[in-house]
Amino acid sequence: MPISVSKFAQIQQRLLLAEHEDEIASSPLSSSSTAASASTRRALQNAGHALTGMVLTNCRTGMGGREVGEFGLDTALSSSGRAKGASKDEDNTRLGVHGITVGDIVRVEEIASGKTAAKSEAGHDDDKNQRGLEGVVTRVGERSIWAAFGDRGKGKQDEDGVDELWGRKLWLVKLANDVTYRRMNQTMAKLEKLQESEHSQLIRVLFGHTTPLPLDFESVGPLEFMDPSLNDSQKEAIRFALASREIALIHGPPGTGKTHTLIELIRQLVQRTGENVELSTVISKSFAKEFRERESKCVDNIVSGSQVVLGTLHGAGGHQLKNQKFDVVLIDEASQAREAQCWIPLLPASRVVLAGDHLQLPPTIKSKSSSNLYQINSALWGKKEDLHFNELSNTFDMRNLEITLFDRLLSLHGTGIKRMLTTQYRMHQKIMDFPSDELYESKLIAADAVRERLLKDLHYEVEDTDDTREPLVFYDTQGGDFPEKSPDSNGISAKSLLVESKCNDMEAAVVARHVENLVSAGVRPEDIAVITPYNAQVALLSQLLKEKFPTLELGSVDGFQGREKEAVVVSLVRSNQDHEVGFLGEKRRLNVAMTRPRRHLCICGDSETVSSGSPFLKRWMAFLEENADLRYLDISEFTN
C-alpha cells in the first residue's frame, strides 16, 4: 500500500518532537545548573549513561580547531587491585559496559569533594563547576573515550575549559542530543516539502509508490572476490546487492560477518563502477577564522574527490557533506537506527543497501506518544492474530518511531529484497541452536572453527571443570526461594532510572558464585560478561562483583548489543507468584542476551515464572531443560 510522503514526514516530525521532550524530561540532569549527587552518578553509571572516576589523559587539536580530550579511568582507583587471573603487566583500566557511543553529547564535570562538595550543598558553588564542559564523543575504546569540545559558554573558549580539567577527578554523563534531533527534523521538513514531481525513483520505491526494478545480474557478470575467506551466503548477498537497482537488505544474524560482507561490497562497487559510496553507521584551542575557512575548503576538496566516504548517519548532515551526492549509500546497523536518521544521507541518493538484524533490539524510544507499540509487538511476536497485514503495514509506516526503515521495507516489499547471511563464526553449536530454530528459520550454521570450542580450550591455561567443559548451563531457581524485589526493598536507591526496575538478590548470589568458579578455573575476568535486562539488578551485581573483578564486563542486555565475550552469564531476575515477566517477554531482547557468548552461556532464572510469559519463553525453558547442563539450587547454600 503506497504511503503519503508528506504525511509520513509530518508525523515523523511530531513524534520526534515528543521523543526529544521526553528524553529531556527523563534526564536527571536536564538542568545544566543541577549538581549530581554520588547516588545519582552511581545510578547513571549502572544504567550505562555515565562513567565515573575518570581523568583527562591526553589533549590535542582536532577538526575545525576543536579541542579533543581523551578520558580514562583514574589509575589511582583502577590499579588498587588486580583481578584474579589477570597478568602482572595488565592494568585494570577497562571502562566496562556502558552506553556512550560515537556522536553522543556528553558533559564532563569534576566530582566534588571536601570543601567543594560542602560549598555545592550549601548552594555556594560557582557556575563553572556546576555546568561542566559539554562535547561530542568522537571515539570510544576499551580504556578511554575521546570527546571534541566547542565553546564552553559565554566568553569561555574550549581550550581554557579543557585545560582546567587536568589533574581533576571527573565523570562523564550522556545528555540529550539537540543537534541530532535538529538534523532529523530538518531532513523530514525537506522530505515533506518535496513535490511529487521531485520524488526520485528511490523515494518512490521506499514509500511503495512503485516496486523495485528487476535485479540486473547480467550487468554484474562473474565476480572475482578480493576476500578469499567469504562464505557462500556472503558472496550471494554481495551479488544480490550489486544487482539491485534501488534497494537491497543484507540480514546479518549474530556473528555472521556482516561487516566483512559490507567491506567486500564496497570494494566491488568501487572497482567495477567507480561509484561514489557513502557508508553510514550507528557507530562515526579555538583557531583563527582564516584557519577554519581553509580547513573547510580542504575537507570539501577531499570529500569531492573521494569514492568512499565513511561517516555516521548524524555526521552525514554536517556541513562537510551538505552538498554531496552519492551513487550508493550503505547503512550498517540499520535495524538500530531511527528511520529519520537514515533519511539524512538518503534524500539525495539513488540507491541504498541496508545491513542489520531486525530480530535484535530496535532503537530505544522513550516517548509514549509513539503509539500502537503494543499492538505492533503483539502481532509481530505471536500474542495477537487478528491484526490484518495492511493495518500492520499502515501502523508500521506512520505511528511508531521504533519501526525502522529496515522493518518497514520488509513489510512493504517482502523478503524478495533481502538476503540473509547464514554461517556464524561466534557461538558454540549448542548456544546457537535455539535462536537459529526459533528466529532464523533453522538456517544458521556454526562454522567448523567455533562449533565445538569450549572455555577449557582457550589459548591460555584453563582447568577442565564442570563449568569450563559445558557450553550451556541453566540454574533453575523455581520453587519460590529466589523471589524478585523492587529496588527500594533491597537497599538500592529507587530514584531516577531504577524506580521501575526489578532485582533479585538471591539470584545475584548464584551469578556471583558462578563467576567466581569460572575465574578460579583460570578464565580471565575480562573474558566474562554478566548481563541482565534490569538496571536494578545491574546495580546489585556491581556491588557483589565489581570490586573483586574490576575487568569483568557488567551491564544491561540492551547496552551489550553488538558485543561478544568468551563467557556470558545472564540473570533473568523475574520470579513471582503471579508469573509476571514484564519486558523479559520481548523476543528481540532475549535474542541479544543468548547470542553474545562464544564458548559458554549460563542462564539463571525461575523456569516456572519465565515459561508462563509466552509460548516463546515456554519453548526456551523446555529447550534449556533438555539441552543445557541443568542445575537446581538449595537455598541453604546462599543463606548461611
From TrEMBL:
CDD domains: SF1_C_Upf1. SUPFAM superfamilies: P-loop containing nucleoside triphosphate hydrolases (SSF52540). It comes from the Eukaryota. One of its GO terms (molecular function) is DNA binding. SMART domains: AAA. Residues 244-464 form the AAA+ ATPase domain. Keywords: ATP-binding, Helicase, Hydrolase, Nucleotide-binding. Pfam families: AAA_11, AAA_12. InterPro entries: AAA+_ATPase, Coronavir_polyprotein_1ab, DNA2/NAM7-like_C, DNA2/NAM7_AAA_11, P-loop_NTPase, SF1_C_Upf1, SMUBP-2/Hcs1-like. The keyword rRNA-binding does not apply. Gene3D superfamilies: 2.40.30.270, P-loop containing nucleotide triphosphate hydrolases. Belongs to the DNA2/NAM7 helicase family. PANTHER family: DNA-BINDING PROTEIN SMUBP-2, DNA2/NAM7 HELICASE FAMILY MEMBER. This is DNA helicase. It comes from Trichophyton violaceum.
